[in-house]
């Protein structure tokens, strides 16, 4: 018996169709049907991804609390980055306090030290 790959059985290659005595027209029609279903599956998957992203965006935005800053407010600055610190997880995560010197329309703030 000749070896047949599982993919050939699932997708229905021409060789497997001949072994099962399926005519070429029936085989071609089944391939065409599978291709048309493939587009539908892609669209369904894209819709699923978009729905998932909307759900995750809504869940994230639900927890975000807007804060309005004004000039001369005291703030702390988050220390982020890939700088390796010998203190490891015990390094400080904030620096400051700073005073807001100026605000832009986009929400960025110019900070100055208390000194």
Summarize the structure in words.
The protein is built from three helices and three strands; from the N terminus they run H-H-H-E-E-E. The chain is 45% helix and 17% strand. The relative contact order is 0.08. The protein is elongated, with a radius of gyration of 31 Å. With 115 residues, the protein is of the alpha+beta class. It folds into two domains: 6-63, no CATH class; 74-113, no CATH class. The chain has a three-stranded antiparallel β-sheet, with no helix packed on it.
Count of all domains: 2
Helical coverage, percent range: 40-55%
Bulk shape: elongated
What is the overall number of helices?
Answer: 3
List keywords for this structure.
115 residues, 2 domains, elongated, alpha+beta, 3-stranded antiparallel sheet, 17% strand
Annotate the secondary structure layout:
Elements: H1 6-11, H2 14-19, H3 24-63, E1 74-78, E2 94-103, E3 109-113
Antiparallel strand pairs: 1-2, 2-3
Short note summarizing the structure:
This protein has helices at residues 6-11, 14-19, 24-63, and strands at residues 74-78, 94-103, 109-113. With 115 residues, it is α+β, with helices and mostly antiparallel strands.
């Amino acid at each position: 018996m000749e070896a047949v790959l599982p993919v050939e059985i699932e997708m229905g290659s021409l060789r497997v169709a001949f072994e099962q005595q399926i005519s070429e027209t029936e085989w071609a029609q089944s391939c065409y049907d599978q291709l048309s279903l493939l587009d539908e599956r892609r669209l369904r998957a894209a819709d699923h991804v978009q729905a998932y992203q909307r759900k995750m965006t809504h869940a994230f935005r639900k927890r975000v609390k807007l804060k309005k800053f004004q000039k001369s407010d005291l703030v702390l600055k988050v220390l982020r980055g890939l700088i390796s610190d010998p203190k490891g997880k015990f390094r400080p995560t904030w620096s400051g306090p700073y005073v807001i010197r100026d605000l832009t329309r986009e929400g960025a703030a110019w900070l100055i030290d208390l000194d």
